[in-house]
Amino acid sequence: MKKNLLLILLMATIISACGEAGIQSDISQVVETDPVTVTIDLPAQAVGVLVNETPAITVETGDISITSDEFGEYGDQLQRFTINKIWYKLQGFDAGNEADLDITLNIISEGTTTKLLETTVVDAHTKTDDVLLFDKAAPGDVNSAAVSVIEGALLNGTSFKIELVLVGKNVRFQSSSDSFDFLFKFDVTARVQLD
Length: 195
Known about the structure:
- By secondary structure, the protein is α+β, with helices and mostly antiparallel strands.
- 18% of the residues lie in helices and 48% in strands.
- It has helices at 2-18, 66-71, 144-156; strands at residues 23-32, 36-41, 51-53, 57-60, 78-91, 98-109, 112-121, 131-135, 161-172, 177-194.
- The strands form 2 sheets. Strands 1, 2, 5, 8 and 10 form a 5-stranded antiparallel β-sheet that branches. Strands 3, 4, 6, 7 and 9 form a 5-stranded antiparallel β-sheet that branches.
- Keywords: Signal.
């Protein structure tokens, strides 16, 4: 009896979702960006010495266009995008080098820059796994307006960039320069209207 009741309720839910407008479906994907390379340079006399703070460095990702890569087949059936989570990962720090990073992350879309978050990555040289930057369920200090800019760019089929403004703190390098990569991953859900 309980099984029949559950089946009837499930069918009623499916039928009510169909209506004249068709069926709405959510499609989720996890998309990783191409890496963006950051280089921190120190004067030769600072090699092996603790440097309290380096000058600011600004780098940008390439154009990020999740729509064309992952959701393009749905075209004008896309109704909305939701960013569920954003992660970052660092890779490629030279062995023996140490640094904390003060980072300001900005979203650039259609010529407008919106601050996403300011954060400090302590012991950045040890961060080789994915680190959760944003979770829709618990957004913390992330600027929701910047997340909306990303979602709007995806819906409009336009690209966006992530700008990183970095300052090295407590830096101790065994050479005068170190280059490493930032990668970002997005957990994205698209609402699709199927006719």
